[in-house]
Specification:
The chain is of the alpha+beta class and 322 residues long. It has 2 domains: 132 residues, PurM-like, N-terminal domain (60s Ribosomal Protein L30, Chain: A, 2-Layer Sandwich); 155 residues, PurM-like C-terminal domain (Phosphoribosyl-aminoimidazole Synthetase, Chain A, domain 2), CATH 3.90.650. Helix content is 35%, strand content 24%. The chain contains 10 helices and 10 strands. A 6-stranded mixed beta sheet has the order 6-8-5-9-7-10, sandwiched between helices. A 4-stranded mixed beta sheet has the order 1-4-2-3, covered by helices on one side. Strand 2, helix 3 and strand 3 form a beta-alpha-beta unit. The protein starts with a helix and ends in a 19-residue tail after the last strand. The chain binds adenosine-5'-diphosphate and magnesium ion. Adenosine-5'-diphosphate binds next to strand 2 and strand 3.
């Protein structure tokens, strides 16, 4: 199969949102009047972001999901995507499954794949997404103020727990294993939440590298501090079980700094607490108030059950940390 047959068979779909989609030297898109374009790109590298042998359909889902998560964190509506990948060889079963996962999520969000690039090489998947947000209304990391409530969606730490299991550091069984592996393989980008937070949240980030690090980015960008309570952090029964056992330290690391959660962490004035509870109910998505922002730019404090600050916070994942 040639490169062009491959594109034609698996990745060329009629564009619904675009003037011109796959097939020319560039796609043509027409942004809606009065909107700004939110643009983001994320790369998944085999052996680094996913284990060799990872299910292809799940990878198709995840490569797009991690990108939609970035748009969600900006309060943008996803519209277009470009997909660049390197593959070691043409494996039609793999390609069909990957495309199935990718397009199922794209269709669910009304996203058009409008272009990409295809090359031979070590497996590497890179998606660029473009979304729209009414001019001036995007949610940034920089708007939080002292006194704001700090919130997080969903649950934290399950994906990291699955990685800890897969790499042999802990042992999960039964439904706990299934749930955590599902959290790792099929993160749900919180697009509807991001849209609902426009006009409510003062700052938003998606939790891709772990809560401590990502909330830390909001604090730095907003020049504030925050105090959060360990006991309030939303976690699954699987993670709770690990916290209560011999693997407590690992579970704590997963909860606070595990990464791969793709939940939204956000700040909002306390006066909006009730509106946020209503929003969570409307979306059927748990939103948990985990702490409060402090006016001084003094970093993040995580308090234990007795109210004492943890002495050492786990580090966020960093590809280039020494
Ligand atoms: P060029 O050589 O002009 O860069 P290519 O031959 O790489 O173009 O690609 C031909 C067309 O197919 C372009 O419209 C490109 O955007 C699209 N394309 C290539 N790879 C992919 C892919 N993996 N998914 C979607 N579209 C793709
Ligand atoms: Mg060209």
């Amino acid at each position: 199969m040639t490169e062009f047959e491959l594109i034609e068979r698996y990745f060329r779909r009629p564009a619904r949102n675009a003037v011109l989609g796959v097939g020319d030297d560039a796609a043509l898109i027409a942004p809606s009047p009065g909107f700004e374009i939110a643009a983001s790109v994320d790369m998944l590298v085999e052996g680094r972001h996913f284990f060799p042998g990872t299910d292809a359909e799940a990878l198709g889902h995840k490569t797009l999901a991690v990108n939609l998560s970035d748009l969600a964190a900006m309060g943008a509506t996803p519209r277009w995507a470009l997909l660049a990948f390197a593959l070691p060889s043409v494996d039609e079963g793999w390609l069909a499954a990957f495309a199935r996962g990718f397009f199922a999520l794209a269709d669910a969000h009304g996203v058009d794949l409008v272009g990409g690039d295809t090359t031979r090489g070590p497996r590497n998947l890179c998606v660029t997404v473009l979304g729209e947000v009414p001019a001036g209304r995007a949610l940034r990391r920089s708007g939080a103020r002292g006194g704001d409530s700090i919130w997080v969606s969903g649950k934290l730490g399950d994906a990291a727990l699955a990685i800890a299991h897969q790499s042999g550091r802990i042992r999960l069984e039964g439904a706990d294993l299934v749930d955590c592996e599902n959290a790792l393989a099929r993160p749900a980008p919180r697009v509807a939440l991001g849209l609902g937070l426009r006009g409510i949240a003062s700052a938003v980030i998606d939790v891709s590298d772990g809560l401590v690090g990502d909330l830390g980015h909001v604090l730095d960008a907003s020049q504030i501090g925050a105090t959060i309570d360990l006991d309030l952090l939303p976690r699954s029964s699987a993670l709770e079980r690990q916290l209560g056992g011999a693997a407590r330290e690992i579970a704590l690391q997963c909860l606070l700094a595990g990464g791969d959660d793709y939940e939204l962490c956000f700040a909002a004035p306390r006066a909006r607490d009730a509106a946020i509870v209503t929003l969570g109910d409307r979306l059927g998505l748990p939103l948990t108030r985990i702490g409060i922002a402090t006016a001084q730019h003094a970093g993040l404090e995580v308090r234990d059950a007795t109210g004492r600050p943890l002495e050492r916070l786990p580090h966020a994942f960093d590809h280039f940390a020494p």
